[in-house]
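Recall the central idea of this unit: under ordinary conditions, the amino acid sequence of a chain determines the structure it adopts. In this exercise we apply that idea directly, starting from the sequence alone.
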Amino acid sequence: MKKKVLSVLLASVTVLSLVACGSSASAPAAAETPAAPAETAAETEAASTEAADAATTEPEMVFKYAELNSDDNINAKAGYKFAEYVEELSGGRIKIEVYTASTLGDEVTCLNALQMGGGTVDFYRGNTNSLSDYGFKKLNLFGLPYIFTSRDNMWKVLEDENIGQAFLDEGIEAGAGMVGISYTDEGARNTFTSKEIKSLADIKGMKIRVPETTLMMDTMTALGAEPTPISYSELYSSLQTGVVDGAENGYPGYYSNKFYEVAPYYLLDAHTFSPGIILMAEAKWNELSAEDQDLLREAGQKASDWNKEQIEAEEKDLEEKLVAEGVTIIDCPAEDKAAAQEACKSVWADYSEGIESDLDAIVAAQQ
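Accordingly, the structure predicted from this sequence is:
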């Protein structure tokens, strides 16, 4: 309609020009001169309208994503990247709201929420070493002590179509009510304490906080410590008040939660190199089209790739910061680690019963 009004006005200008000048030769020039800016204005208005429409478009689906760590932790950053990639790949149709620092609850609360169909929590970035109590067996193998000999070998297993990628659907197969999207890496889990230690032998008899999962309790028992399951959100105060003597976590979690302030001895025993995993409530997953399921997996893979590229530099940076904060970082003696690996063989046996072939596949893929 606006374009028609402009055309009428332009025609009127042309007629007046002809009358005023009395020259038919100048008529085309008079008509053409204002035509160009009139067309540009129309195009600009259309472009502005399209941009405004895009900016005000409401997403068709909104999901809640839970993370225990704070925003500066690499797992939280990977969550934000995942949300970014989902929005980008869906053209804004799907939005992921990321809630960090245990805002939506502790690990048990979040996993239970997924199992019950989502709503309060639709996505949760958990650890594969925390899934044994929810019917998982294959994914739980990734949390076995000393199962991975290096970071490169871990990623070799996780990216294997017949192992890591195939295991993402175990939650559906096991009736756990959740499905894996992709993996994350926050590095090896090391032991840290409020009391001075020099080797793994020194943690024997110590109360070491572990996630509320039987696998980690059994791992710490095998290492001679007294495992104490405590919610992650309560760990700092538990260390501060002496409820526990120590805990275990990778560099990112240890630094971002400031555990070093109350437990400044950090032993590089790398007892577990368990990857993280982005999980979605199966009930929510089933509501999606096959195309949108593929889209989430693609976004998850992109977030995983970003994480993989960043983690080593992140660890190096955090180590330097921790030393500057006065943390004592202790290399674990080789003989200590060998003894620990031997002690943990019973844990491997207990958690691989009936799926020995999968355990063998994980070991073989690293050779």
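The mean pLDDT is 88.
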